[in-house]
Structure formats: structure tokens, C-alpha cells
Amino acid sequence: MPRPAVLLLSGGLDSATAGAIARSEGFDLYALSFDYGQRHKHELQAAARVARALEVRRHATLAIDLAQFGGSALTAPIAVPKERSTEAMAAGIPITYVPARNTVFLSLALAFAETVSAADIFLGVNALDYSGYPDCRPEYIAAFERLANLATKAGVEGTLKFAIHTPLIQLTKGEIIRRGSALGVDYGLTHSCYDPDLVGRACGQCDACLLRRKGFAEAGLVDPVEYVA
After folding, report:
1. Is residue 226 domain-resident?
2. For residue 81, how many C-alpha atoms fall within 13 Å in the half-sphere facing its CB?
3. Which of 119, 224, 131 is nearest to 180 (CA)?
4. Which residues pair with 30 in a beta bridge?
5. 125 within some domain
6. Segment 79-107, tens digit of pLDDT
7. In a domain? residue 229
């Protein structure tokens, strides 16, 4: 019988690939997305498309207005960095970092997991081709996994032993795309851009777009999404 697992689903290529890997391992998926006050909703539309493609058992979208705090180019009227080199992306934590976002998201995923008796949580964080986010590091994931088993009724009583799965954390973007393609992921359903135009076309110049394009080039595949430039 398939085991239940919660998938943090942003609508980007990483979370779509993580979901495909979880499905290939026999998990029955419960997807969780967030309307957190981000500057556009195209990624939520992508998350809904990916959830349907993954045939998740349930897809919940929670509204949490992190824009009330601001502090990020994704939640406040701050310019999104464009045309940065790979070296510049790796030099410090960028303004697109949303304060404590993964901690907030994982905490709610943990609550969802406990209610559906899922010991497993999947997310598509990556520590190689990423834009310097502190909450994408292996040591952070390990610390949260310890917390999950200390902070829940199921963990304390021993009815569930929570595991945080990050199958992409040590892969390059090209390796992620090759892995997902082998599993049949339709990357045309996904959205990665931080600053798309009004109809959802990717800008092609923000960090997320540049890393995505680099990944497809490394994988030797054509990116199916449309770019403005």
C-alpha cells in the first residue's frame, strides 16, 4: 500500500522533480503550496498544473501574507536583480531571500503531515545551483528534521518518525532536469521566474531564469517555457 507523503510544491522545476521522484518511490502525495504575498501568482497556477500531472491525492494552498513583513524583492516593492553572473549569485544572500520562508513552509507541511499520518516530507531545495539561501543547506534540513520529531505529538509518542527528503540537494540544475526528464516531468507546466510579465512569460534575466537556462543547456535539452528575452 502506498505511503503518504507531503510535497512542498512551488510550481517550479525543482519541486516538480522532487514530486516525480517521490511518486517513483511509491509515495501517495499530498501537495502543499503557499500564497504568501509573492509579487505574482503565476507560480501558483503552475503548482496547480503540476499537482494535476502528479495525480496528488490532495492539493492544499494556504494564504500567509509574508508581504506584511516585506524585506524581500519577492514580497516588497524592491527591484529583482537581473543579469548577474554565477559568481555574483554565490556571493552572499540575495535580496530575493524571503525571511524564514522555508521554516514557515516546513512547519505548516509538518502540521499537514501529522494530520494525514505522513512521516515523509519532500521538498526541492538545492545546495549547489542555488542563490545563496541559508534555508536550502543540508545542515538546516537536518536541524529541522530533529525539530519535527521533538515538536509533534506523533514524534513524541513515536507513532511517526518524520523524515525530510531533499532528493535534489546535491545535484546541479542540469542533473535535476535530466533526472526529471527521465521520470517524464513536463517542464512546460512549471514556472521559475521571479519577475514575469503580465501574461506569465519568464523575464529570462533574473537569478531563477539564469539558473534554469543554465540547467537546460547543461542537460542538453530545450526549455519549453517562453521567455521575454
Report:
1. no
2. 15
3. 224
4. 6, 58
5. yes
6. 999 999 888 887 888 999 999 999 999 99
7. no
